[in-house]
Design goal:
CATH topology of the largest domain: Alpha-Beta Plaits
Number of domains: 2
CATH class of the largest domain: Alpha Beta
Number of strands: 2
CATH architecture of the largest domain: 2-Layer Sandwich
Number of helices: 10
Largest sheet: 2 strands, antiparallel
Distance between the termini: 34 Å
Structural class: mainly alpha
Shape: elongated
Helix content: 40-55%
Radius of gyration: 20 Å
Oligomer: single chain
Strand order of the largest sheet: 1-2
Strand content: 5-15%
Order of helices and strands: HEEHHHHHHHHH
CATH superfamily of the largest domain: Transposase IS200-like
């Protein structure tokens, strides 16, 4: 069902989000309010994610039930969260969130949607750290952040999470490009897969759709070792 039925509902939710931001000390980078769900990208400074989202959704549910004479749960399923490990992941997430209304056919470009976070710094609710966004992004292939997000939308690659299963040939090409990208070299060499770079390369490859069997084939690293490569804290 719709959990945001009018502009007042969205304003109330964003006001609660602002209060929660202060109460739980988290740093917001992007958000999008759709009809029956929302997306939020933020840094959980004090590691209170369940408390913060629980507080936000509980207080919004109290408002929603009172306004619409509704009873029972407003948010029917537990929230889903995904940690961000690498810079590439971060901007894929920004693009995915802001392009949600584009994907839904509601607008032609992300910045036409009223209930997306702004990249310009002007926001009614003063929620996002837009200065961090731009300084962290700087430039990818000479594109502004806005151009980057629009290009991902037009190319229909809104999220790398949505990529289909890769063939071995495609996976090998992608894996080589990841190694070149992360090592800042112009050409591939197996020597670039140093012990220091191993974990970062493998996590990035997994994220982009390279499976464990393919990583074993390209690196010679055992599948058990690959499965044990876990990072305890997020990239940002």
């Amino acid at each position: 069902m719709a959990i945001f039925k009018d502009s007042q509902d969205k304003d109330v939710f964003l006001n609660l989000l602002r209060n929660g931001q202060i109460l739980f000390n988290f740093q917001i980078f992007a958000y999008c309010l759709m009809l029956n769900h929302y997306h939020l990208l933020f840094k959980d400074v004090k590691k209170q994610l369940p408390l913060a989202i629980g507080w936000l959704q509980e207080n919004y549910a109290i408002y929603f039930n009172a306004k619409y004479n509704h009873s029972g749960a407003v948010f029917m399923k537990p929230f889903k969260s995904k940690p961000i490990y690498l810079k590439g992941h971060f901007f894929v997430a920004v693009s995915y969130i802001l392009n949600n209304p584009v994907k839904a056919g509601m607008v032609s470009e992300f910045n036409e949607y009223t209930w997306n976070s702004a990249l310009t710094g002007y926001e009614k609710h003063n929620l996002t750290d837009y200065l961090y966004l731009h300084s962290y992004y700087k430039s990818i292939a000479g594109l502004s952040l806005s151009e980057y997000i629009n290009r991902r939308s037009r190319s229909k690659k809104i999220s790398d999470i949505e990529l289909k299963v890769l063939t071995d040939k495609d996976a090998e090409e992608l894996f080589i490009n990841i190694i070149i990208e992360l090592s800042n070299h112009s050409q591939f060499s197996s020597e670039l897969i140093t012990p220091k770079m191993q974990k970062e390369i493998i996590l990035e490859a997994k994220y982009r759709g390279v499976n464990s069997r393919q990583i074993v084939k390209f690196t010679g690293i055992s599948q058990y070792t690959i499965s044990q490569m876990k990072i305890c804290k997020s990239y940002i």
